[in-house]
């Protein structure tokens, strides 16, 4: 729902990382007196969310990095940028351009959030009036830092605007455990003050903070707390207006998703092409080159599922048909995936099914290979909360019908009335088998939704999934002593030695 535009007024007035400080002095506070009303707090908070749809973040760089580092998606076009291929094959140098791009953008999100939080102190109204707005900024700061700490470990944690360049150039890293403590505190504030519902799921409500607390605790291995938070969301399903969408395909239909009660927090692309702000690159990156079937001009065949994803995924599971395209149209002729490369005019496709979630129903005004998109990208949806609850409960109290019930709600939709009772209801699994099952269920339910790499990293599954029997075959460069974290950008270390040491192995 595009019912408000993001404001970028404060972008250049806050610290946005340590890059290019000599050339662009951007470590300054907003002008004194800017924050006078709650509208001013909202302006700064909007800037934080606006940065999330930039090409540097979810438009392309961070989202594509996460997808390629998992075990389900590989490079389809070998002529694509080397900086992308490096993530696919785990050969990432400290000057990788993907990381450089979004490191800076994430700190712009944090800077705008910090401006809103600091500025709110100058707005002389009651807490019950301003805190529900300020809580949006707390949520944005937690959301941004949660991505950073999972990818880099110890990171610079900024609690407020940076007032001068000297301070900016002397920032050091905060231990990951302390970063998580701060993320939890921000989400607790947001959970306390955000309303139960917002006018759009692109504006965080209490359910978003509540759900992310569950995911944060799951990531930390604090399973009782993860379950408690997830159960709190489930128990408030009616209050938060949440539920599972009846038809899985509808979750990826831009023309109707705004009315769904399953999304909890989404990024809403507005199709703005000026400087790539607000453009949706996933349709292009995941779409098949030269494919005529969606009227988008074809995609770029950059991020393509491995053939084993298709071969392994049982065809009775409705989610497979929703998630994958196995045919395309070239010169008006429908061809199977086995002939994609030979049939396309450029010859740069690949003979594998392509991701359909971001190309099939992208909206009536989509343009430019789908980059001018009406799509919403679900950062958190209710099905994931059910999965979190099931996984966490199995760790603290295995063998419960409650945990089984959460999985069975999701599997019932996946059957889509196919009459085969597949995927079958879960019952009677051991703790170890349930753990394996729920991670597999996350893999299929959340396929290509940028979650898989984080699951691999938090459960330390790399050696298992990147061997010869994995979906992408052996990835010999994967090193579990190094590759669960990314390198701190080399330019950042050169400009600010206080960010040393570099992450192991880089």
| Side-by-side strand order of the widest sheet | 1-3
Beta strand count: 8
CATH topology of the largest domain: Serine Threonine Protein Phosphatase 5, Tetratricopeptide repeat
Percent range for β-strand residues: 5-15%
Main sheet summary: 2 strands, antiparallel
Radius of gyration: 22 Å
Low-confidence segments, given as residue ranges, are: 1-30
Element order, helices and strands? Answer: HHHEHHHHHHHEHEHHEEEHEEHHHHHH
Assign the CATH architecture of the largest domain: Alpha Horseshoe
Class computed from helices, strands and strand pairing: mainly alpha
Description of the structure:
The protein is mainly alpha-helical and 506 residues long. It folds into three domains: 1-194 and 460-500, Serine Threonine Protein Phosphatase 5, Tetratricopeptide repeat (Alpha Horseshoe), CATH 1.25.40; 282-370, no CATH class; 383-458, Serine Threonine Protein Phosphatase 5, Tetratricopeptide repeat. Helix content is 43%, strand content 6%. It is built from 20 helices and eight strands. It has helices spanning 38-51, 55-59, 61-69, 82-88, 97-120, 127-152, 165-168, 176-193, 206-220, 223-235, 282-286, 307-312, 318-323, 340-343, 382-396, 401-415, 431-445, 452-458, 462-465, 490-495; strands spanning 73-75, 263-268, 303-305, 324-325, 327-330, 333-336, 354-355, 376-381. Strand 5 and strand 6 (333-336) form a beta hairpin. The chain is globular. Residues 1-30 have low confidence and may be disordered.
């Amino acid at each position: 729902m595009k019912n408000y535009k993001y404001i970028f007024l404060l972008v250049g007035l806050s610290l946005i990382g340590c890059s290019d400080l000599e050339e662009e002095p951007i470590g300054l506070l907003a002008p004194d007196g800017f924050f006078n009303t709650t509208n001013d707090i909202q302006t700064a908070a909007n800037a934080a969310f606006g940065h999330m749809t930039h090409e540097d973040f979810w438009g392309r760089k961070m989202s594509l990095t996460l997808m390629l580092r998992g075990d389900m998606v590989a490079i389809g076009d070998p002529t694509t940028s080397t900086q992308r291929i490096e993530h696919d094959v785990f050969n990432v140098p400290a000057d990788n351009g993907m990381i450089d791009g979004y490191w800076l953008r994430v700190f712009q999100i944090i800077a705008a959030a910090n401006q809103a939080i600091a500025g709110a102190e100058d707005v002389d109204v009651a807490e019950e009036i301003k805190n529900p707005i300020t809580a949006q900024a707390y949520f944005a700061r937690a959301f941004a830092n949660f991505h950073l700490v999972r990818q880099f470990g110890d990171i610079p944690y900024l609690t407020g605007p940076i007032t001068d360049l000297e301070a900016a150039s002397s920032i050091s890293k905060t231990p990951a455990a302390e970063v998580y403590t701060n993320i939890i505190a921000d989400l607790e504030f947001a959970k306390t003050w955000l309303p139960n519902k917002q006018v759009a799921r692109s504006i965080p409500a209490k359910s978003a903070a509540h759900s992310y607390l569950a995911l944060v605790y799951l990531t930390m291995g604090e399973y009782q707390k993860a379950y408690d938070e997830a159960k709190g969301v489930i128990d408030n399903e009616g209050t938060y207006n949440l539920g599972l969408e009846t038809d899985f395909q509808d979750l990826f239909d831009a023309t109707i998703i705004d009315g769904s009660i399953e999304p909890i927090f989404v990024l809403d692309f507005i199709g703005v092409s000026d400087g790539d702000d607000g453009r949706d690159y996933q349709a292009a990156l995941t779409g098949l080159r030269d494919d005529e079937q969606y009227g988008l001009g074809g995609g770029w065949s950059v991020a393509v599922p491995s053939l084993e994803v298709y071969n392994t995924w049982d065809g009775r599971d409705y989610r497979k048909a929703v998630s994958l395209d196995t045919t395309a149209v070239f010169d008006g002729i429908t061809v199977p995936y086995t002939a994609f490369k030979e049939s396309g005019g450029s010859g740069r496709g690949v003979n594998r099914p392509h991701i359909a979630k971001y190309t099939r129903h992208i909206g009536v005004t989509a343009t430019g290979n789908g980059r001018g998109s009406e799509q919403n990208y679900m950062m958190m949806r209710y099905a994931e909360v059910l999965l979190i609850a099931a996984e966490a409960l199995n760790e603290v109290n295995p063998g419960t019908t409650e945990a089984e019930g959460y999985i069975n709600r999701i599997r019932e939709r996946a059957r889509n009335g196919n009459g085969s009772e597949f995927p079958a209801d879960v019952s009677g699994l051991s703790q170890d088998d349930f753990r394996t099952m729920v991670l597999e269920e996350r893999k299929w339910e959340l396929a290509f939704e940028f979650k898989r790499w984080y699951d691999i990293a938090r459960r330390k599954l790399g050696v298992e999934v990147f061997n010869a029997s994995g979906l992408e075959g052996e990835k010999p460069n994967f090193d579990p002593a190094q590759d669960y974290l990314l390198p701190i950008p080399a330019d950042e270390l050169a400009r600010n030695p206080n960010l040393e040491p570099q992450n192991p192995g880089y």
